[in-house]
Amino acid sequence: MVNQNTDKPTNRNYFLGGIWNYFCKYLNCINEKTGEDPGHFLLTKAGNSLIDRKGLEKHRFSFIKDYYNTILEMRWHWAILVFLSSHAITFIAFAVIWWLNSYIHGDFNSNDSNSKPCLPDLETFADFFLFSVETQTTIGYGFMYPSTDCAGTIPTLFFQVLIGFILEAISLGFVFAKLVRPKNRSNTVMFSCKACMCCENGHPVLQIQVADLRHTHLINAKVGGMLVAEYVTLEGFVHPLYQVKVDFEINNVGSNVFLMWPVILTHYITDASPFFCLNREDLLVKKIELLVWINGVIESTGEMCQVKTSYIAEEIVWGYRFAHANQFDKKNGHWNVDFKRFGELVPCPMSRSSNFSDGDMTMIGVSSETKEEAEVVQTVADIH
């Protein structure tokens, strides 16, 4: 006896799957990658994912069931195309239904002058299509109107108006949700294009500059980071994307970010840091990517927002620090922020030793005991 394959797709699955593949595989309408940065393998500088997802053939109906979020994640032109198509399909479908009502009622072949047609003065399919558009959009010019003498008039009118209201509500909700997406707020929060390796108070540090362009800033914002690289365990098992926590702080306030002016995120390179045993040459050889993000609440809407970016080894410069973008204006007694100097680098003294673990200078080899919150983790020196 041959067992039947219950996973064999039906014609319905082929049809829906073909539509899904058309939009997502060929048109790439969802999570479309724009402005990819060379060398980045996880995130672009703008925070867009670079990870390709394959083998989703068996899971495509999960996206269809979650149709609202699927449409929200579409690019604007594809989403507008979907809504225009849905309205056009309903217009045509109900135009056919109205034509069938008139045909069944005998309006096209009736010679009885006393018989009142379902839709007076409608003869061609273009007339029925125009009436369908007027009914669903509730325009009602008054020249075309339905007759209650036809049995199918009231149910057809009821269902078309109901479906029209539902489509309009979904369209309005989509446009509103698309315009107020928290993701759009990330466009006004900037990260520096480069990360700096320098020394501060005799301690080796990694620094990143961040600024908010708006006067209303993110509330309760916190910064986080991690270093991603390949890692091989003692048993020889390879983790291709091993994550190591990277703690950032701003001056002496911890990980809380107050973005009233451009600030510098600082990571102290202690023996608990994944950068502790990396030297300048290692940064150019190892395939690593530093991910940095800020989570906060949008003041105007109260929604959670995340801003993220990434840095590869080539974008971590050695022996530089960020220039001051804040200047005090003595004339008006206010601080000014010059965004033209945002991300500008200036050289600074740095140890000639490229290995932070050498400890041959006072600025090298800082102990983790100087940072109470530091934890002993596996360093990237063990990552191959």
From TrEMBL:
<keyword id="KW-0851">Voltage-gated channel</keyword>
<keyword id="KW-0630">Potassium</keyword>
<keyword id="KW-0407">Ion channel</keyword>
<feature type="domain" description="Potassium channel inwardly rectifying transmembrane">
    <location>
        <begin position="44"/>
        <end position="182"/>
    </location>
</feature>
<keyword id="KW-0633">Potassium transport</keyword>
<dbReference type="InterPro" id="IPR014756">
    <property type="entry name" value="Ig_E-set"/>
</dbReference>
<dbReference type="Pfam" id="PF01007">
    <property type="entry name" value="IRK"/>
</dbReference>
<feature type="domain" description="Inward rectifier potassium channel C-terminal">
    <location>
        <begin position="189"/>
        <end position="354"/>
    </location>
</feature>
<keyword id="KW-0812">Transmembrane</keyword>
<dbReference type="Pfam" id="PF17655">
    <property type="entry name" value="IRK_C"/>
</dbReference>
<protein>
    <recommendedName>
        <fullName>Inward rectifier potassium channel C-terminal domain-containing protein</fullName>
    </recommendedName>
</protein>
<dbReference type="GO" id="GO:0034765">
    <property type="term" value="P:regulation of monoatomic ion transmembrane transport"/>
</dbReference>
<keyword id="KW-0813">Transport</keyword>
<dbReference type="InterPro" id="IPR013518">
    <property type="entry name" value="K_chnl_inward-rec_Kir_cyto"/>
</dbReference>
<keyword id="KW-0406">Ion transport</keyword>
<feature type="transmembrane region" description="Helical">
    <location>
        <begin position="157"/>
        <end position="177"/>
    </location>
</feature>
<keyword id="KW-1133">Transmembrane helix</keyword>
<keyword id="KW-0472">Membrane</keyword>
<dbReference type="GO" id="GO:0034702">
    <property type="term" value="C:monoatomic ion channel complex"/>
</dbReference>
<dbReference type="InterPro" id="IPR041647">
    <property type="entry name" value="IRK_C"/>
</dbReference>
<dbReference type="GO" id="GO:0005242">
    <property type="term" value="F:inward rectifier potassium channel activity"/>
</dbReference>
<dbReference type="InterPro" id="IPR016449">
    <property type="entry name" value="K_chnl_inward-rec_Kir"/>
</dbReference>
<comment type="similarity">
    <text>Belongs to the inward rectifier-type potassium channel (TC 1.A.2.1) family.</text>
</comment>
<dbReference type="GO" id="GO:1990573">
    <property type="term" value="P:potassium ion import across plasma membrane"/>
</dbReference>
<feature type="transmembrane region" description="Helical">
    <location>
        <begin position="78"/>
        <end position="100"/>
    </location>
</feature>
<dbReference type="InterPro" id="IPR040445">
    <property type="entry name" value="Kir_TM"/>
</dbReference>
<dbReference type="GO" id="GO:0005886">
    <property type="term" value="C:plasma membrane"/>
</dbReference>
